[in-house]
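Exercise: predict the fold of this chain.
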Amino acid sequence: MNNSTKQIPRVTPKAYEYVKEVLDFGFHNAHSVGITAGLEAEFARRFGQEYGISHCNGTATLQTALMAAGVGVGDEVIVPSFTVVSTPMAVIHCNAVPIIVDVDPDTWTIDIEAIRKHITPRTKAIIPVAISGLTPDYDPIMELAEKHNLVIIEDNAQCYLGYYKGRVAGSIGHLASFSFQSSKTLTCGDGGILICSDAKLALAAKKAATIGFKDITLNPGDNVVSELLRCQPDYQRHDSIGWNQRLPEIAAAVALAELERIDELVEMRTYSAMAFEKVIDKCDWILPQKTPEGYINAYWNYAARITREDIDWAEFLSTFIELGGDGFYGSYQPAHLEPVFANLNKAVDENPERYPHYSGRLPRYKKDTCPVWESIQPQIIMLKTNYFDTAEADKQAEIFAKTIKRF
């Protein structure tokens, strides 16, 4: 497809330098080399917010965002059915109620009318998910948030440098969550970051991530109270509920180095996606996720749908692998059909006294509640874009073309 090729390392050499800085400085309770501060400040700046709060993972970021938004016992949070279970699970962690709604039939992002239909007096927040690298339609979501006084938490685990009508994903909602898990575009093995421009929300989230330290500051890198305060025997340290969800600085070192080449990382994924798209454009029975005009897809993967009923999904995968392809993924189960939620319904039914905040409030997580996504999900293929060699991306696309010809 392309006579010129490009290769990049899986881990940038700069990461080794930053990790060495951390190791040479050593590990101290109240002092650091400043890597975490650099990551938090630069990440927030790059993605259009004022404050960055690094976390141990991208589920913790959602949890602390919800806590900052005041979400608690019995409150409702609207999330899409096409998402990793971490999204609704973060709601459960807050003893709140995940309201799992359907998606748009073309973009597969959260459906605006489904949101509108499910807003109640108990709704406190919405977590729109940028799935496979594509943002949802944010303008009407933000209008609903303003009308109903809701907090919008962007879940951008799969969306680095995706754009919505000229705005980078991460700069639109009241808070925005990103993941550094090992499959993500920017990774340090695991971790995450929450960004925000509202100082009150940011401070509440930071306290939620640092065991409720009373005098924590919003200064980048500050994740403990100063030693001068903590050494005093009469000092009361904690005034709110929080978890210990800090990101180790050695991981922050890798994340900072990867952030510095984020454009290149996204460029490589986009190249891989376009290689597959050239093939799929010639096939009338594979339908890609629609990227509307004015959006830029970040292509964490290349998501498409097999529309021919006579093709067996598993057979299509095995043929791709047989021809030399390195596989692709199906979509996660619709979130509301993951067994954990049916099990929760059962537990509440059998022991309502143990779940007074859910009894009479928890919806029935069952089939036919999100019919659009339930009908599409079995047909989804998610092609890998994490190739660090354009020649390999071209090779995989060529194998995919051969696979299509087999059918």
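Check your answer against the key: The first helix runs from residue 13 to 25.
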